[in-house]
Amino acid sequence: MGRAPGLLGPLPLQFNVYFVQDINAGLKDVAEIPEIQMPVSSLSKEELEDLITKLKKASNGLELHLKEQILSHQALQEALNDPKNGESAFKHLKQQASILGNMEKLHLLGPGRCFVEFGAGRGKLSHWVDIALQNAENVQFLLVERATARFKVDGKHKRKDSIFERLQVDIQHLCLNKVPILEEKKLPLVGIGKHLCGAATDLALRCLVESYTTCCDGENEEPVPKRSKSDKTELASNSSTDNERNEEDTLENSKPVAGIVIALCCHHRCDWTHYVGREFFKSVGLGPVEFHYYQRMSSWATCGMRESITKSSMNDEESEDQTNNTEEHDQAYSKTEGGSDTLQGLLTVEERKEIGCLCKLLIDHGRIEYLQQRGYKAALQYYTESAVSLENILLTAVPRQSWIPEPTA
Ligand SMILES: C[S@@+](CC[C@H](N)C(=O)[O-])C[C@H]1O[C@@H](n2cnc3c(N)ncnc32)[C@H](O)[C@@H]1O
Q1: What protein family is recorded (predicted)?
Q2: Cα of 119 from ligand 1 centre, angstroms
């Protein structure tokens, strides 16, 4: 029976055209995942030592010290200088400014693109990208968020050259190819996110570089738009070498995803089934059991530092931000499993911190290898000071020119 227009509420989420059940979930290999997963606190001293030895061995050879790339962007200058902003708002602005600065450095802030913000919350990051691109033509924004967001800022944009659309869906089920505005214009995508927690990052990466890219291959009848002249002038003033620029110019025309810039968070919320770095883990002799513990132990990275982060006085809008706030996620976790376990006597705070950092690095390295294998030049860097956010790592990726797809069997 048909639905009488106007009589029923909004369409259930799974009936949206872009909803494809588990399209980005990754393959669940039931045989691989042990049924009972014990908490870290129940491990014996020997078991814990064994896990730490394996962790150190697997991280051997990885770049342990990430580059600092704490940047800013003109678009946020006025807001950053506004004394009316409270401490919390200021911290968010600093992070947003650095994310935009990093996007600019990678030449991703330009006309003729669709910015897909994953885990958008109120949509503030897209808001600032829109401000930064105020004179650019043909810009779209897709704000992906599974929760209903209050205090959204995406309804406030009136600029005629940008289109904002909110997709209320879990990234796990998002098929970008079926989003009507993407089908129409086929603009190159830039995937962005600020504090995209745990498994959501893996789902977003798979959404961009597997489900979207695979379906797009060979479908683009028209070449994607070239950069405008003004955009190229902007490039010339940037610090990249000519070679890098040429490389990226060519690439943008050959891949539907022009770039990825995601500030990571909450590694303890990762999930082996969704994790894109499973191949990397297996290649260094690790599997779902080790992943389970490392993901939990990753919260040790910040356990000694949380006390120094004080909650600032907030207005209503900021408190709303805080309900999604990373530090809150971490604090909730530390109370349950990561912090108050029985290992206190076994390891010093410093040792726990070092191990937690290694766990995060290992998980993130798997993501980098995944992107590299799919033709991207990917990197991790610090994008803000730890006093601003304890979750201060930014994952970036742009297509690599020399990439030749592996033949499919
Ligand atoms: C820590 S909050 C960050 C919100 C916002 N980006 C910011 O910086 O204020 C993470 C957001 O990602 C959303 N999220 C997490 N997992 C998701 C998923 N699988 N699909 C869609 N949204 C998700 C949450 O609902 C939440 O709004």
Answers
A1: Belongs to the methyltransferase TRM13 family.
A2: 3
